[in-house]
Design goal:
alpha+beta, Penicillin V Acylase, Chain A, 7-stranded antiparallel sheet, about 30% strand, globular
C-alpha cells in the first residue's frame, strides 16, 4: 500500500513552488531497503532503493538533477513473483535520456512483463511541465494519459476507483498547499505534509477497497482491512506498514529540497524509531526536451 499527492504549478511566483510532492511507501518491514541517497551508479538521481534479491536498485520514487520525477504505485492485485520488478520502471526513466512519452511507448510494448501498476512521470525541464501517467491495469493498455497541471493523487486502488483515504487525503493536501504553499512558510508546509502522511484516520466502509479485496479473495472486514484504510498504515501483526514519508519541493528557479523519514528496522513496535534525511540541490532545467509527444 502506498499513496502519492502532488501539485504542479508552472506559474509559481518567487515565493511559490513549481512542484510540491508528498508520498508514503507502505511495505513489509522485513523487505531490505536502502534509505534515500544519491545513487552510486547514477549520481544525478536521488531516492530510496529496493535491496530485495532480484529487485536490487529499483525504487518507488525518485528525482534526477535534470528535473525528471517518477513514482510507481502497485495496484492491489494477485502478484506473480516471476514478473519484473516494478521499481525498475522508475529507475530506468530517471537514468534514461528519453522524454516521458517516448519512455511510456516502450513500456506499453512490455506491459505484460509487470504486475499491475500506476506510473507517474513528471518532467520539469521544459518551461511548461509535462505530466504523463500510464497504467497497465486501466483497460486501455496502449494509451497513456497527459495530465493537466494542478493537484493529483494516486494510491493502490484500481484505475478510476479512488479509495476514500486518497479522496480525503487529496482534499487535505489541497488545503495545505493553498494555505502554506509558500517558501516563507516552508517549515509549516513540511510539518503539515508530514501530519497528512502520518494520518491514521481509518475509512472502514470504503466500497471500492472492499470490492477490490473481495475480487482477490481477501477479507473485507477486520483489523488488517481497517488498518490499511488509513493513509498511515500500521499493521504490526503482519509486520507491514508505512515505512517511508517523502516530501519534494521545487521552486520556480529549480531549487529542490528533498526530505525523507524512514522507519528503522527491525521495528520496535512499542517504541518505533525514525531516521530523517534531507538535502537540497539545484536542478539543471536548461538541458531541453522534445515537447512533441508523437516522438
Amino acid at each position: 500500500m502506498c499513496i502519492l499527492f502532488f501539485y504542479v504549478n508552472d506559474d509559481a511566483d518567487d515565493n511559490g513552488y513549481r512542484l510540491i510532492l508528498a508520498s508514503n511507501r507502505d511495505e513489509s518491514w522485513t523487505r531490505p531497503t536502502k534509505p534515500a541517497s544519491f545513487w552510486g551508479t547514477s549520481p544525478e538521481c536521488i531516492g530510496g532503493q529496493d535491496e530485495e534479491p532480484g529487485r536490487e536498485g529499483g525504487t518507488w520514487l525518485g528525482i534526477s538533477k535534470e528535473g525528471k520525477v517518477a513514482a510507481v504505485l502497485n495496484i492491489l492485485d494477485i502478484v506473480n513473483p516471476d514478473k519484473k520488478g516494478r521499481g525498475f520502471l522508475v529507475r530506468n526513466f530517471l537514468t534514461s535520456k528519453l522524454s516521458s512519452s517516448c519512455y511510456l511507448k516502450d513500456i506499453m510494448k512490455h506491459r505484460e512483463q509487470y504486475n499491475l501498476f500506476h506510473l507517474v512521470l513528471i518532467d520539469l525541464r521544459p518551461k511548461m511541465s509535462i505530466i504523463d501517467y500510464y497504467s497497465n491495469g486501466d483497460g486501455h493498455h496502449n494509451k497513456s494519459h497527459h495530465l493537466p497541471k494542478g493537484f493529483h493523487s494516486f494510491s493502490n486502488a484500481e484505475y478510476g476507483k479512488c479509495w476514500q483515504k486518497e479522496v480525503a487525503g487529496k482534499q487535505k493536501f489541497i488545503q495545505i498547499v493553498k494555505e502554506h504553499g509558500k517558501k516563507t512558510e516552508k517549515e509549516i508546509l513540511i510539518t503539515s505534509l508530514i501530519q497528512l502522511l502520518t494520518d491514521s484516520t481509518q475509512h472502514k466502509d470504503d466500497p471500492f477497497m472492499k470490492s477490490q479485496c473481495h475480487k482477490l479473495g481477501r477479507p473485507t472486514e477486520g483489523e488488517i482491512m481497517e488498518q490499511r484504510s488509513a493513509i498511515f498504515v500500521w499493521s504490526p501483526s503482519i509486520q507491514f506498514g508505512t515505512r517511508t514519508n517523502t516530501i519534494i519541493l521545487v521552486d520556480k528557479n529549480g531549487h529542490c529540497e528533498y526530505m525523507e523519514k524512514t522507519l528503522r528496522t527491525p521495528v520496535n513496535v512499542k517504541n518505533p524509531e525514525w531516521s530523517t534525511f534531507s538535502t537540497s540541490f539545484q536542478l539543471q532545467l536548461d538541458c531541453g526536451v522534445s515537447l512533441d509527444h508523437s516522438k
